[in-house]
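Structure request: Class I SAM-dependent methyltransferase, Pseudonocardia zijingensis.
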Amino acid sequence: MVIASPACRSCHRTDGDIVLDLGAQPSSELFPKIDDPGPDELYPLRMWLCANCGLAQLADDADVPEEVVGSEPAALTAQRADAVRELAAAGAFPAGGRAAEFPSPHGGSWLPLLADHGFTATPYAAAAEQGGAELVVDGCFGVMHEPDQDAALRERAAAVAPGGRLVVQFHSLHAIVSGAQWNALRLGHYAYYSTPAMITMLERVGFTVATARRFPLYGGTVALVAGRTSESPAVDAAAVDAVVAPELAAGMLRRSAVGALQHSVQRTAGSLREMLVAQRAAGRRVYGYAAASRAVSLLRLADLDAGLLAGVADASPGKQDRRMPGTDIPIITPQELVAAQPDVVLVFVSELVGEARAALPEIERHGGTWVDAGAGR
Ligand SMILES: [Zn+2]
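Returned structure:
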């Protein structure tokens, strides 16, 4: 349902603005069976920016089904290792103890990496009752899936033992805006954090950010390490400012700057459709690669069907015999993609271009071309 006047999921205030409106969209998590003709249920998909605390968030609540866990790009695995190594080297972690990790529907875990730094895994759900964990981690984009952002951060904060640290890692709003990644906006992803907004949210639950790092994943992924404000944690102000200052300069708390996302929507979707119409007219066959959540709104806004995009290949077994939500475009296996001998393969997840090329050399051997059709283009 469309909520006429949203209230902030973090600070509960009601002053704010719609900064991005993608209209009515199907769930990007439920890939219908290929023999289910639809129509698929549609939900409003809008980003609202709180004028009080600066948190960008989904304006509306939609009860979307559980997502199908896809195969994780190697870039995510590599980034986790980078994050743990850099933060450990900077002395941002306590000297071992218990580590509690809040899970993510995207999968992935910091726990095996943290074991090398003296941390023993403890269940996150029981951590608060058992005196807390020295390190509490939300490192795999978990907290953005929580409709009640304030409650979610309080739960994470409560799991931290005295003297412990809380790590939160997120895809930065700055990367989304500067990279025109408007299709990062998705049902089920309730919050889109700028670093200043996340710092404010952590302060509200009694935590002070001690250090920050920015990584290139997704155009900008930020990891923050925070300690209890009442314990006066040592703060690496230079490291925090290095991440915060560019975001403030880019206007990440202002609706005019964040609202620039809206202008990129028709440009991206319109040019994708024009390109596919031209390819079809030239008798060339175009397929997609990666039946990713972020491709769903793009395919709908570009008004694509199987006549323009013959199929989208995906390696995940859970997505086979299904179709792209809101369209008749089938999801196929990588083997079927190779057998189709496509002229062009559009890769909807930029992080996957390299590994897709390497895994399917037959595409280029048969004269096909890989094209990066990820966000921001
Ligand atoms: Zn707010």
